[in-house]
Design brief:
Blueprint: H1 2-18, H2 22-26, H3 34-48, H4 57-73, H5 76-94, H6 103-107, E1 126-132, H7 134-139, E2 141-173, E3 176-204, E4 213-216, E5 231-237, E6 244-246, E7 249-257, H8 258-263, E8 265-270, E9 276-281, E10 290-293, E11 310-317, H9 325-335
Parallel strand pairs: 1-5, 7-11
Antiparallel strand pairs: 2-3, 4-5, 6-7, 8-9, 10-11
Helix pairs in contact: 3-4
């Protein structure tokens, strides 16, 4: 009876460790190629993107789950670990464990053995600037980056690896023991440096800010004695000809003529996605005047239904031609404005 309970507990534990079925989430077979996985991910990502489903609260969770499934199945090492040990095995791998996720469970029942904890080595992380347009940060985009990555590959011969210090006990006489420390190494295949060309799929999410990063686990610098480091792509915005971004708000300057400044005007300003922002002025517009267009800024990264504002500063272009005496008298009569000459420190 006790053994039945044990094996029932074991089966339930294995099911718990197995986690989600990422193949089922993406709708592909376990034998699917990288190309098929990428195609399925793109299709589902476009379908469940939160911007396309603003009224569906479950779309965001589904979109996140699709991304998690793709991150694992698109990576060869993670996919192998997932196929063998499930989602829990991948989590353990990302935490730098590198051991069987069932080891602790079996160890409690006497099936495992205590091992000396060894130092874990890891290659350096790599940070790469990702230059993106303001349009991409407004709408979002998927980009594919081709990269030559340094790695190690096996070659002929062996080398010492996983070296560590172990304590050994020797009997020196009846009831007498001596403990000594020895350096112990494993034999591993020789390695040589190589270059591996790979394609990485990045998503530029709407509202991302400068300095935000996307992480690719195990895609950094290699290490002969351990796991490679991680690769980070850091967002940097390319300067835009019309708009300047500050947080979620956009700023721009608009030049108008003196006539438009005095009598008013009506125009449409093209936005980042092509829609027009209507600007209508019937009052006098002075140089340096600022108006705000609510909700015409950038989408908020955390809440894409929330938009910043657009601030427009007006510049007035004065005519360069000379006015005749009659024209000057006409301007004075129309404006009927007293002198406002005043010197002051404007800094």
């Amino acid at each position: 009876m006790a053994w039945r309970q044990f094996f029932l507990l074991l089966a339930l534990s294995i099911l718990a460790l197995a986690g989600r079925d990422f193949y089922k989430i993406l709708g592909v077979n376990k034998s699917a190629s990288k190309k098929e996985i990428k195609k399925a991910y793109r299709k589902l990502a476009m379908k469940y993107h939160p911007d396309k489903n603003p009224d569906d609260d479950t779309a965001s969770d589904k979109f996140k789950e699709i991304g998690e499934a793709y991150e694992i199945l698109a990576d060869d090492d993670k996919r192998k670990t997932y196929d063998r040990h499930g989602e829990e095995g991948v989590k353990n791998m990302q935490q730098g464990g590198g051991h069987d996720p069932f080891a602790n469970f079996f160890g409690h029942f006497g099936f495992g053995q205590q091992q000396e904890e060894q130092r874990e080595y890891k290659g350096s992380d790599v940070v790469v600037d990702l230059y993106v347009t303001l349009e991409e940060l407004y709408l979002g985009n998927f980009v594919t980056i081709k990269r030559d990555r340094p790695t190690f590959e096996e070659t002929s011969g062996t080398r010492q690896c996983n070296c560590r210090m172990e304590m050994k006990t020797h009997m020196t006489g009846p009831g007498s023991f001596q403990m000594t420390q020895h350096r112990v190494c494993d034999q591993c295949p020789n390695l040589r440096q190589a270059i591996e060309t790979e394609e990485l799929e990045l998503e530029i999410e709407p509202g991302m800010l400068d300095g935000m990063t996307q992480r690719f686990s195990g895609k950094g610098e290699p290490h002969m004695e351990g796991e490679p480091g991680d690769l980070y792509f850091k967002v940097k915005t390319i300067r835009h000809n019309i708009f300047e971004r500050k947080g979620d708000d956009l700023y721009t300057n608009l030049t108008i003529s003196l006539q438009e400044a005095l009598v008013g005007f009506d125009m449409t300003l093209p936005h980042l996605d092509g829609h027009g922002v209507a600007i209508k002025r019937e009052k006098v517009t002075w140089p340096g005047a600022i108006i705000m267009k609510k909700g015409e800024g950038m989408p908020n990264f955390e809440n894409r239904n929330k938009l910043g504002n657009l601030y427009i500063t007006f510049d007035v272009k004065f005519p360069r031609g000379e006015l005749s005496s009659e024209d000057k008298d006409s301007v004075r009569k129309i404006l009927n404005q007293a002198s406002a000459q005043k010197a002051y420190n404007g800094l």
